């Protein structure tokens, strides 16, 4: 096993633990803001994992997927913020 393989396995385990924690917060989060934040964290973890995979394998084939995930994260965060702002004003 090369050093890069070991680092990749360690990173995958850390990303997996973070993803499991985010999914558990999405499932049992008491408020919608907790669930929204956990969803943003899950998207960030998946983007970081995808970027790490691209760096380890030295390719840019999945760059479009990375950009689409970033777009969903931004649009989702803005939509939830606007929804909560309208809800608080009422």
UniProtKB/TrEMBL annotation:
It is a multi-pass membrane protein. Its main location: membrane. InterPro entries: MrpF/PhaF-like (IPR007208). Keywords: Cell membrane, Membrane, Transmembrane, Transmembrane helix, Transport. It is found in: Cell membrane. Pfam families: MrpF_PhaF. The chain crosses the membrane at residues 6-24, 36-56, 62-85. It comes from the Bacteria. Belongs to the CPA3 antiporters (TC 2.A.63) subunit F family. This is Sodium:proton antiporter.
